[in-house]
Amino acid sequence: MSEPVGLGTVLREWGRIGCIGFGGPPTHIALLRELCVARRRWISEEDFEHGIAATNLLPGPASTQLAIFCAWRLRGIAGALIGGTAFIVPGLVLIIALAALFLGSPPPWVRGLGAGAGAVVAAVAVRAGIDLIGPSRARAADPRRWAIYVLIGAAATALIGPWLVLALLACGAAELLRQRVITTRQTLMINPISPIAVLAATAASGGLAALAWTAFKVGALSYGGGFVIVPLMQADAVDHYHWMTDGQFLNAVALGQATPGPVVQTVAVVGYAAAGLGGALLAAVVAFAPSFWFILLGADRFERLRTDARASAFLAGAGPAAIGAILGSSIPLALALTETWQLAILVAGALLLFVARRGVLTTLLTAGAAGIALALAGAPLPR
Question: Minimal CB count within 10 Å: which of 114, 119, 201, 327?
């Protein structure tokens, strides 16, 4: 890189990716590589690959952290803050606007759109989990332990929903202990116990404290990809605090998949349901803040993290458990469907995903269109 990249350029280019980044992490990574490595040659291929490896070892949304890291490589702290914000905001604005539409008093065709798209979310969860199984199992040192962690994650989703994060942390800790790796703190965290304890203690009071705790779990304590936030949020949002109905939560997950930018912005829909626009903004800030924190505090140590035995050992336990949680989330998501025609759309969506090999966005849009058609034809809609 011959001369510093202007902050205006960072704002424009990262904002462009935030606007066109449909398709989740694979799309985000491809767009960032095309911009920073292939077209502008701001970052070497080796540094970019190191960034991918390191962010995959961190909790939270990996592609968001990669976007922040690439901007940090160009212009330091200012670049990270501007680039990361520009990457997040376009999709966040869109999803909050859609939340206001879907969670208000929408006309029947909008309700049909949400009910149709929401019907295939369970199949999308299975697809997300299956896509992660191959690479995760290939890295596993012991396939039997890997399978046990997957089963623990799936069982935790069904049995201890709001505290699923404890199962993820326990599996990571178990792998650390098994490998006799002794550590007193993680590489990129500074005394993380205190904020976790404070948030967990205040969450019982409900209200904004509970919303902040839910968002914190999503942004700082989730391992295994964007879809692991679904089981982390569902028990809190629907069963424990009753911010949303099952149908509204399905709509929220569908919106998170169908809008550009990071899937984690789904938490803004939960925040909107809990406390309106202020709740949506609070949930987004709390969920995304750890990603900035990890990069700003630790990006210059990424090479060490990438080869750190402690981080790799922890992820060897927490990662498979997260995959199990994603797969397990498909059960309550399917049980949340209330109309017979939604079950038919779920089956059709599964065929599109697994037999026809269509993409997630195409499947959601097709299911949403079917829902609109059925609603206009007078089919019963979920309450």
Answer: 201
